[in-house]
Amino acid sequence: MSIQIKNLSRYYGEQKALDDISFSVGQGEIVGFLGPNGAGKSTTMKTATCFLPPSTGEVRIGGFDVTQDAHEIKKITGYLPEHNPLYLDLYVHEYLHFIGKLYGLTGSALRARVAEMVELCGLTVEQNKRIEALSKGYRQRVGLAQALIHDPKVLILDEPTSGLDPNQLLEIRRLIREISKNKTVLFSTHIMQEVEALCERVIVINKGRIVADDQVSKLLLRTRPQRVVIAEFEKPVTSGILEGIAGVTSVEAAGANAYRITSAQEVDVRAEVFRLAAEKGLALVGLRQEEGTLEDIFQLLTAKASDAH
Amino acid sequence: MIQILAKEFNSFLNSLIAYVVIGVFLIAMGLLMWVFPESSVIAYGYADMDTLFSLGPYVFIFLVPAITMRSFAEERKAGTIELLVTKPLSDWDIVLGKYLACFFLFVCALLPTLIYYFSIYALGSPAGNIDTPGVIGSYIGLVLLGAVFCSVGILSSSMTRNQIIAFIIGAFLCFLLFSGFESLATMNLWSANALMIKQLGLLYHYESLSRGLIDSRDLIFFLSVIFLMLSLTKFILGIRQW
Fold first, then answer.
1. Looking at the predicted complex, does its ipTM rise above 0.95?
2. Is B157 exposed, middle or buried (0-12, 13-18, 19+ CB in 10 A)?
3. Which residues of B touch A77 (CB under 8 A)?
4. Does the global pTM surpass 0.90?
């Protein structure tokens, strides 16, 4: 079951929320959907879950079209909407039963499934409480449990970890990793670490356009074609010595006694720097490679996109 | 649809709404029927239930929108409508489930008033001196009227995310449909067309049923209004403007 989006645009009145976006998520793949607030993440997800009709373009889930076979799509899709809306006056158990019934589960199958979800999502202690009495982290678990109750093939999670404290964040991420085996998962977030922690592939969206769609590792490479190593010595050294290392393209000072050594991406100069220091009797006190972070990439990509406008 | 109906009805029972609605209606009708001398059967001296059937609709104009106001307004405010709409349900399932839950609560409030019939039946001199077909017709009329009010209330609830606005619009529309056309027809503008305008109102058809004559035209009128209101609700739900 895959997600295919082709030339999708969506207008809210005059405002264009999605501008001709296309991407697809293959069977069993976990993809992060990354973008600043208001970029169009939620709109895309609402379209994919048959909540909002596309203005133009085509959205297919598992081969079904959202405008024609909405009912089929709803049966195979689990959806956690943004802000995780819940019926606060219901008990956890009651709520999961209600949602299960909506998916056509009945009798012992329903009871077994609810029990399984309670167990999986770590709600055992809280299952007999009203949802309004639960903390945000537990509510999020209830939201995930309802999205999973019918064992969906496709899972669409809109900001599943927003507003959680660091402990809850880790737990929910662990839970998502656990449940996403053998499922096609598209989740949105504006937290970079989340993408790194959960998935291999990321789609970056900004102002209704897709600005990147690639493997996380490749994306990291793409924005940083050169490798930068920062070497710190006990005493100042002449930069000429460092420039003499094979493969180094430039050396510049980066603070007292520290130097930014740039080389081509394929060349790792760290071993050479160490050997050189040992040879010349220089005390090397620090040597680290500068990593391109997703934050950099994100800023780079979204800034580029806004320049273009 | 059954699942929505069951859930909605349960949430009426689990909150105070059901008990307040039923309690207030029965207390109000009980006072009007048996206690307040102006409208009391005992002071009036005739064995009929006109007080219930003539004042009941006005009580329902306020009570029914109070039952229905949360149906969609609350779901929209809390965002849970997104949850419902993305489940494998048709829009009709959602509208009808909510509508029927409100309607059943209305019926639950009305059912205990059957005791009044038996009381008056027994109090009559001689006992049993009551226009039974008239009472049956009036009950059918009142149930249909409640069904229309529920559909109007559901529609007004779907128009806004604010429950108070839903209530006020609902009560106003109920009033307008019920006796608005009747009052409009009394204006001196229409000459021969006055009857036609009168026939657009619910009151005209309600009174016709009260006479104990179940006319298919009246039934069709009530059912058409319900269908129109629910179709509009479904249409509004389909626009997804929120």
1. no
2. buried
3. 86
4. no
